[in-house]
């Protein structure tokens, strides 16, 4: 894995925490951006750059969960690692249900931080890293109907909408979609979009 292709974003209202984590990660060769608030992160970060986010749960103005909700609405699909000194079980459960990659309590050891960040970056790059030759081979394995369905998936249409567009039942679309997903090695519309770098 090439760390230089990925960026770790750290969002925390505690400057000492930001400096400490940034130092640990940069010493390992990672590219790191730090933000003192959710608002600063949301208005300044380049979402297209692969990587992950380390997000503090408790911050003034926008909480970590609120930032996560906004990121989800904006289709930001890179892994999010929540970091908190509060360790609230309800918040952890909610964060994980909403797709958080992990939930870690402060203070966190440098070794665990590096391990979790490395795992998150590997997951993110796996989602993006389909080489063109492999992609072409997998696309060639799709039937004509499966290709049609996948094109409609990329347009963010539901199974019902795809069925109406192609003159097929919703159940038939579900079957074609499941078959196409299996051939491409994906499990969701989000992964389909990553597969095509959309």
Descriptive keywords:
alpha/beta; Rossmann fold; Arc Repressor Mutant, subunit A; 2 domains; five-stranded parallel sheet; 55% helix
Short description:
It contains ten helices and five strands, in the order E-H-E-H-E-H-E-H-E-H-H-H-H-H-H. The protein is an alpha/beta fold. It has a five-stranded parallel beta sheet, with helices on both faces.
Give a structural overview:
The protein is of the alpha/beta class and 198 residues long. It folds into two domains: 3-128, Rossmann fold, CATH 3.40.50.2300; 132-195, Orthogonal Bundle (Arc Repressor Mutant, subunit A), CATH 1.10.10.10. It contains ten helices and five strands. Strands 2-1-3-4-5 form a five-stranded parallel β-sheet, sandwiched between helices. The chain is elongated, with a radius of gyration of 19 Å. The mean pLDDT is 84.
Query: Low-confidence parts lasting 5 or more residues at pLDDT below 50?
Result: none
| Strand-pairing-aware structural class | alpha/beta
Q: Can you tell me the number of structural domains?
A: 2
Elements, N to C (H/E)? EHEHEHEHEHHHHHH
Residue-averaged pLDDT = 84
Q: Based on DSSP secondary structure assignment, what is the total number of beta strands?
A: 5
User: What CATH architecture of the largest domain do you see?
Assistant: 3-Layer(aba) Sandwich
Shape: elongated
Topology:
Blueprint: E1 7-11, H1 15-27, E2 31-35, H2 38-44, E3 51-56, H3 64-73, E4 80-84, H4 89-97, E5 102-105, H5 110-128, H6 132-140, H7 144-154, H8 159-166, H9 170-184, H10 189-195
Parallel strand pairs: 1-2, 1-3, 3-4, 4-5
Helix pairs in contact: 7-9, 8-9
């Amino acid at each position: 894995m090439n760390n230089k292709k990925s960026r770790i974003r750290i969002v925390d209202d505690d400057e000492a925490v930001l400096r400490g984590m940034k130092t640990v990660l940069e010493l390992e060769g990672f590219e790191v951006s730090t933000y003192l608030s959710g608002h600063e992160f949301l208005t300044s970060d380049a979402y297209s750059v692969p990587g992950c986010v380390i997000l503090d749960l408790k911050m003034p103005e926008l909480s970590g969960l609120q930032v996560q909700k906004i990121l989800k609405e904006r289709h930001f699909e890179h892994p999010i690692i929540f970091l908190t000194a509060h360790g609230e079980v309800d918040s952890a459960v909610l964060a994980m249900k909403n797709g958080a990659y992990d939930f870690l309590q402060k203070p966190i050891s440098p070794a665990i931080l590096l391990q979790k960040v490395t795992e998150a970056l590997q997951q993110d790059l796996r989602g993006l890293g389909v080489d063109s030759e492999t992609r072409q081979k997998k696309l060639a394995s799709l039937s004509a109907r499966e290709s049609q369905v996948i094109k409609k998936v990329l347009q963010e249409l539901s199974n019902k909408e795809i069925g109406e567009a192609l003159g097929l039942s919703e159940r038939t679309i579900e079957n074609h979609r499941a078959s196409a997903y299996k051939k491409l090695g994906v499990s969701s519309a989000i992964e389909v979009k990553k597969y095509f770098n959309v």
